[in-house]
Amino acid sequence: MKTRITELFGIEHPIIQGGMHFVGFAELAAAVSNAGGLGIITGLTQQTPDNLAKEIARCREMTDKPFGVNLTFLPSFAAPPYPEYIDAIIDGGIKAVETAGRNPQEHLPRLKEAGVKIIHKCTSVRHSLKAQAIGCDAVSVDGFECGGHPGEDDIPNMILLPRAADELEIPFVASGGMADARSLVASLAMGADGMNMGTRFIATKEAPVHDNVKRAIVAASELDTRLIMRGLRNTERVLNNSAVERVGDIERAKGADIQIEDIVDLVAGVYPKVMLEGEMDAGAWSCGMVAGLIDDIPTCKELIDRIMGEADAIVRRRLEGMLA
Ligand SMILES: Cc1cc2nc3c(=O)[nH]c(=O)nc-3n(C[C@H](O)[C@H](O)[C@H](O)COP(=O)(O)O)c2cc1C
What we know:
Layout: H1 4-9, E1 15-17, H2 26-34, E2 39-42, H3 49-62, E3 67-73, H4 82-91, E4 96-101, H5 108-113, E5 117-122, H6 125-133, E6 138-142, H7 157-167, E7 172-175, H8 181-189, E8 195-197, H9 199-202, H10 211-219, E9 225-228, E10 236-239, H11 242-254, H12 260-267, H13 271-276, H14 300-323
Parallel strand pairs: 1-8, 2-3, 3-4, 4-5, 5-6, 6-7, 7-8
Antiparallel strand pairs: 9-10
């Protein structure tokens, strides 16, 4: 399939694996890229820029296909050394960067000078237009369904994607709630040039996370995610567990007076315990409603081949057949 996104990133299929904290290691990025999509290493999961440089080198040993790096500009207690992370990206020969969170404008000139294509993740049309205005090459439009941070507007993709298509000139991918060929074809119908998946890629053989995490996603239904940190305007969609229920209790008790310190032990620094050690109740971890559509643990190649094969059948047989 050829779209503006496959052309922009030099990939075979219009499928991107979104950056995921303590999931987006070289093994997953390489597996997605080898399967013809765009795999992405999560920059800040690497504790130092030097570690990111090593992770990029490790990924290069596993694939000769293009892969990218995610740089997340989220509110954090100590700002990471972003310019040094960007050095590692440029020196590592990376040509695709997924930015997310705060406006990446101050970092764009260096990246663009090095020939890096930027796809910025946005949860609203106005942020997408801003990304376009500051020179991003593409946008990942992340609907309310998404795992991670859906923003504060609560607009699901059935509305957000056609709204983005009406306003944007640069290409965009649909993100949030994407799982299969139906997601891809629907996204293309609504004006996107491809799709970005997070949660779906965690439940794959190559995702280097504990089996408990994959099993939890397969077991979960679309009813099992919760929104936390609304009162802090840092909303996150997470899989429900005992820690998330405690966060909810504290949020209800504190109301508008809630401070990050009230819940920090339940929401910060928990990813290594969950993702690597499989302690499923160690804290709150991002997960999309799309868990309800995930019931197997294929390889990335099996997943992507299945999506592309079934997308072809939906377009050629189901849709075309309806016209005839
Ligand atoms: C476990 C997990 C961790 C994530 N970590 C990050 C992150 O560090 N930076 C980021 O930009 N997005 C992060 N995301 C969001 C994904 O990149 C992607 O936008 C989102 O998962 C799409 O929604 P979906 O899960 O419904 O596919 C994370 C998502 C998950 C599920």
